[in-house]
Amino acid sequence: TPVGTPEAAPTATAQPPVESPEEPSEAPWPPSEIDAAETVLELAVEWVSEENMTGEELMPAYTDAVGGTMGPADFDVDGGDICILNTADNSVYVYSGGELARRIDLDITGLYAIRMAAEDGNVYIFGIEQESRMPAFAAVDAEGKAQSLPFMEHLGSESVAGLSANGSELYVEEGGRYWTFDLENPDAAPESSEAYRLADGTLWEPHFAGNGILTHTMTLDVTHPDGRTLTIPFEAACEHAGMGGLRLLRCGGGQYDVYVVEITQDEEYWIHTAEYVLRVDEKGTPLYVYTDSSSAELHNTRLDSGALYSMSVDGSTLSIKRLPDVFTTPWARYESP
Length: 337
Description:
Layout: E1 38-44, E2 46-47, E3 60-63, E4 69-70, E5 72-78, E6 81-86, E7 91-96, E8 99-105, E9 111-119, E10 122-129, E11 135-140, E12 146-149, E13 160-166, E14 169-174, E15 177-182, E16 191-193, E17 196-197, E18 203-208, E19 217-223, E20 229-235, E21 242-252, E22 255-265, E23 271-281, E24 286-290, H1 295-299, E25 301-304, E26 307-314, E27 317-322, E28 329-330
Parallel strand pairs: 2-3
Antiparallel strand pairs: 1-27, 3-4, 5-6, 6-7, 7-8, 9-10, 10-11, 11-12, 13-14, 14-15, 15-16, 17-18, 18-19, 19-20, 21-22, 22-23, 23-24, 24-28, 25-26, 26-27
């Protein structure tokens, strides 16, 4: 189904003025004609006890002494190759065309890895030094050579929530700030911002409107890599619901896919949420909606060449999905649960 403005789309209410951007990029939009989520990789997770691990397991997992789960913990997609960080054996598994192409033993970095990103065959990790137990960054290049990265000295805390890489830049989400490090000049002072950043360099910031506990509207400020800026308004699908949050997942062709959380409270004061991905234009006009993935999958996505991927672990099965590029449900037909 081609993407376009659906018939009988709801009329937007009065909102703050939107700055008109320049012509959108010529990159294909949507990135493909895929109109349903596709499982691109499915693996068996081998549950073992820590003391009985032999090192020969493929994608192991175990429960540690304090009840924490060690196993598949993070992932990235690098030019179609799927890279999975496994904390049980401190390795990154690289799959190409559904087959294991490379297994990187991260012990060569001297770190126990916690977060990862991948770009051009290189893997970047944040973790804990095995000897000093201090937080640190490192890289392993496509030839398997490890390098320490002096990025930790610039951060204000150890609360690194995510990594992503784009060309020669590494983006680090930490303590409510977002840092850009130069991988070609690791000793250079980084840039920092309070804006979120996509892997393609797009910056975005959500803002609540009003001072109430449940506000019905929000805005999303977007700054494109070429400097274009705009403010996109949003409002809850149901008049009794409040906005719980916005997260920009990707953009292209003058359209934006945004993960939306709505919140309601019933008569017994129980909180209920609804999550979906809403495709809007630059003025905030709702076009299409996607609801067929779990909230965890929608929140933790990876962007590669315009395509969105998610990872989930269900018992003994790990799945990597590619989310649809064409949304088939017009916003006018969406019914809030």
